[in-house]
Every structure is written in structure tokens, then in C-alpha cells.
Design brief:
alpha/beta; two-stranded antiparallel ribbon; 13 helices; elongated
Length: 396
């Protein structure tokens, strides 16, 4: 009886994975990205002003801003501004913005001098920014990011060409560096993108990344901004999208010209702190989103864990003289077939998505990524259960 339960459970979790891969992930793999020029032509009449405000919130980021602002200022788009929110910087950012950006005609800045207890600093900076922007559409990024091209802005507003769309989700890959930590960061970033792009295409958007996210300001104020989670560390991107995004009002952009490259964490403590904040935010998601993500990650972890258990139990039981029934043999064969099909489909479909998303992970190491992510999700889930919420409010 124990072996039958084990085999049925194994078959069930692999089946859940097959459903996600075949009917959810495949949407991103097969998605046809419209040409930005076609979409932008339709975008222009949709709002009283077609301009876009690029918003960058920064604290002590003078080196990054020195590199980033000229790239943003040079974007190929008819009407836009770049608004930098300088949040209490002490590294000379204020002087740099006052004296050294006059030649960047699109760039302006606002200085924030105070921190408030009732709201986290970055959410306060973003709220002020959205009240002060010139245009009805905002495109968000961070100071440590770099656009893939001067067509980034044009491509990221293209999904809003559809009058129903008010949110556009973009991709922000991390730069490639040597070492296992960087490999893990790129694996996790790719698979997170697979999930939020695919579920958005399936009509169930649940998050976006603030390094590359666009939306209409009216949806922000209609939702009362960050009011419901103003004291939560993080969530200025994914919690906001989780609250306001629907299958009808959210579009995606997979155009390589719109990717916003970001600098990865380079030490394990820095990365763990970042991921801890991201994982803690997840508990504030809507119930339906939490259930879908729990099924997705839980079945991923259990697929590999139960495969390992079955791979150990069956040979040991055989050596000990256990006689398998025809039903048990049938379940074992079905499980092996399902697992093999699941492995190959994951390899092919997620590999295809990785190819589209800046070759984030080479197709040949996709099974390796599959196993590593299962281990990562198991470890992260256990750690989240036993980690106390942060008391200190961090800026990012």
C-alpha cells in the first residue's frame, strides 16, 4: 500500500508539472511579438498625451547614474522625460544632478530630504514621482540597470497600444559573471520570467519587475497607489501588479531591444537578503495567485524529490525480495514515462523561452537548471517558514 501511494503521488505531481509546461509555459515559447513600430503608431492617439515619463529612484547611486542617464536621454521616442528621484543620497548624487546633467535635455530630478515612518522610502519616492511626472504613462527602472538599445522605451510602451492595456511587463536579465552564484541568479531570474510572462498570457498576471515595468498613472491612483502595502519591505512592483493586473489590462514585451540588463549581486549574503525580501512579499499575493504558485513550485520540488525516492525504494525493495503487483508495475511504468516526457518538454519549452530571453541559460544545461531550481525552491521555502519578518525598513 505504501508503494502504491508513493507511485500515485509521484504520478500526480508530475502530471501537474505537465499541465503547467504544456498549457502555461508554452504560451511564452510560442508568443508572437508584434513589431514595435506597428504598435506605437496605434499608441499615439490613445491618450491625450502620448509622452512617457521614465522614472528612476536612486539612493547613493552616483556611479550608476553617470552611466545610465545618457542612455535614457538618448532613447528613440518623440516625447518623453527622465525623472530621477534622489532619495537622501550622501555620495554626491545631489551635486551631480544639479551641476552635471544640464546637457541631458530630457533629464530632471527631485530631491527627497526626509524619511517617513508610515511608508517605506522607495514607495514614498515613487509616489511623489508619479504625482510630479509630466506624462500619463510611466516606465520604471533602477539606477543599476542598462537598456539593451535606444529602442527600449519605444518597445516597452508598445503593449499599451491596445486601449484595454494599462500595464506592460518587461524582462530584466542579469549580466553574466563567473561562478555558481551568478549562474543560480540567472537561472532563477529566467524561471521567474517564464512564470510571470506565461501566467500573464494565460490571463492570470500576478507580478512584474520594477527594473522594467510600464503602466498608466491613472491605474496607480485608481488603486490608491501603494496604500495597502505601504509598510511592506519591497513590493513596489510585484505587489502593485498583483493588486491591479488582470488578463485584459496587462500586456507583455519579449522584444530583445526592450530588455533592461541589471547588475547581479556578487556575494551570497547580499543575494540572500534580496531573495528573503522577495519571498516575504509573496505572502501578500492574492489567494488565487498563491495557490497557483504553490502548485507550480511544490510540484516542481516534489517531482525531483519523489523521483529520487522512487529511484531508491524500488531497487531496495527488489533486493529485499518484495514482489511488486501488476498495478504497482503499471504505476511505476506510467510514472517513468510521465517523468521522461516532463523532462524533455521542460528542456524544449523552457529552453526555447531562454533562447528568446537573451539566451539567459544555454539549452544544453536546461536539465541541470531544472534540478538546481528544485533544490533552491525547497531550501527557500523551508527558510521562509523559519525566518522572522524584517523589522528595519530597507530602501531596496
Amino acid at each position: 500500500m505504501v508503494i502504491i501511494v508513493l507511485l500515485i503521488t509521484w504520478l500526480l505531481v508530475v502530471g501537474i508539472q505537465l499541465v503547467y509546461i504544456l498549457f502555461i509555459y508554452s504560451r511564452t515559447a510560442l508568443y508572437r511579438q508584434p513589431e514595435p513600430n506597428e504598435q506605437v503608431r496605434d499608441f499615439l492617439p490613445n491618450e491625450s498625451s502620448s509622452g512617457v515619463s521614465i522614472v528612476v529612484c536612486a539612493r547613493n547611486e552616483i556611479d550608476n547614474l553617470t552611466e545610465l542617464l545618457p542612455l535614457l536621454n538618448a532613447q528613440c521616442y518623440p516625447d518623453f522625460e527622465v525623472l530621477v528621484m534622489d532619495d537622501r543620497s550622501t555620495d554626491g548624487t545631489g551635486v551631480f544632478l544639479e551641476k552635471d546633467i544640464a546637457h541631458l535635455e530630457r533629464v530632471r530630478f527631485i530631491r527627497i530630504d526626509k524619511e517617513y515612518e508610515h511608508i517605506t522610502p522607495k514607495k514614498y519616492a515613487l509616489t511623489i514621482a508619479l504625482k510630479k511626472v509630466k506624462y500619463p504613462t510611466v516606465l520604471l527602472t533602477d539606477a543599476d540597470c542598462r537598456p539593451a538599445s535606444d529602442g527600449w522605451l519605444k518597445g516597452m510602451v508598445a503593449p499599451l497600444a491596445d486601449k484595454e492595456k494599462v500595464i506592460g511587463l518587461g524582462f530584466s536579465p542579469y549580466e553574466r559573471r563567473p561562478g555558481f552564484l551568478n549562474r543560480l541568479i540567472r537561472f532563477e531570474t529566467l524561471f521567474t520570467a517564464v512564470q510571470y510572462f506565461s501566467l500573464a498570457l494565460a490571463g492570470r498576471p500576478y507580478m512584474g519587475v520594477g527594473r522594467n515595468l510600464t503602466y498608466r498613472t491613472r491605474v496607480f491612483f485608481a488603486n490608491q497607489g501603494f496604500y495597502r502595502h505601504k509598510n511592506v519591505v519591497g513590493g513596489d512592483d510585484d505587489l502593485f501588479v498583483n493588486e491591479v493586473a488582470t488578463g485584459k489590462n496587462t500586456g507583455i514585451c519579449l522584444d530583445p531591444d526592450t530588455f533592461m540588463w541589471s547588475k547581479p549581486k556578487e556575494t551570497w549574503p547580499e543575494w540572500r537578503l534580496q531573495k528573503q525580501r522577495h519571498l516575504n512579499v509573496g505572502k501578500y499575493y492574492k489567494a488565487g495567485n498563491k495557490l497557483r504558485l504553490a502548485l507550480l513550485t511544490g510540484s516542481h520540488v516534489l517531482t525531483w524529490a519523489l523521483t529520487l525516492v522512487v529511484g531508491l525504494v524500488v531497487p531496495v525493495a527488489t533486493l529485499l525480495g518484495y514482489s511488486f503487483t501488476p498495478t504497482e508495475w503499471l504505476l511505476l511504468l506510467a510514472g517513468l514515462v510521465a517523468f521522461t516526457v516532463r523532462l524533455l518538454l521542460f528542456w524544449g519549452i523552457v529552453g526555447r523561452i531562454s533562447f528568446r530571453l537573451a539566451h539567459t541559460v544555454h539549452w544544453a544545461v536546461m536539465p541541470y537548471m531544472d534540478v538546481v531550481l528544485a533544490g533552491y525552491y525547497a531550501f527557500a521555502g523551508i527558510k521562509t517558514l523559519f525566518t522572522k519578518p524584517q523589522k528595519r525598513i530597507y530602501w531596496r
